[in-house]
Amino acid sequence: xxxxxxxxxxxxxxxxxxxxxxxxxxxxxxxxxxxxxxxxxxxxxxxxxxxxxxxxxxxxxxxxxxxxxxxxxxxxxxxxxxxxxxxxxxxxxxxxxxxxxxxxxxxxxxxxxxxxxxxxxxxxxxxxxxxxxxxxxxxxxxxxxxxxxxxxxxxxxxxxxxxxx
Length: 165
Known about the structure:
The chain has a five-stranded mixed β-sheet. It is 41% helix and 18% strand. It is α/β, with parallel strands linked by helices. It has helices at residues 3-19, 53-60, 66-70, 82-90, 108-113, 124-136, 138-147, and strands at residues 26-31, 34-40, 72-78, 95-100, 117-120.
């Protein structure tokens, strides 16, 4: 099994969200070639502010050990936002495979800065699925973007000294 296989499973999760009238983003957490959990975006379905696909997959994995998380790869159909990247870093997930990052760029630089290996597959099915959704429901997607100031990129401040008083 390879990256394309596991990304296809994440795409299946994105389609599941779409079938539930949600935003088509999916994720799968894989440890040493075995699927640990799956998740999909549930913002609309659950009226949630945090149930992104990556967060759903991490939550659905249950409480893993440090060593288990280190052996995991997270597959996601869309570039992860700062919140999801924070969870990836917090739980020491060592690798993230991203279906595509041209529709929306997340906080990939945050992952790289924290030694998370990133692979972007530039998958056309991920792009097409999300593009069709945003064209059919532009108001839903714009409402979500408005909540985060129209960007999911990291707001980086270079050389900012910390003043501890």
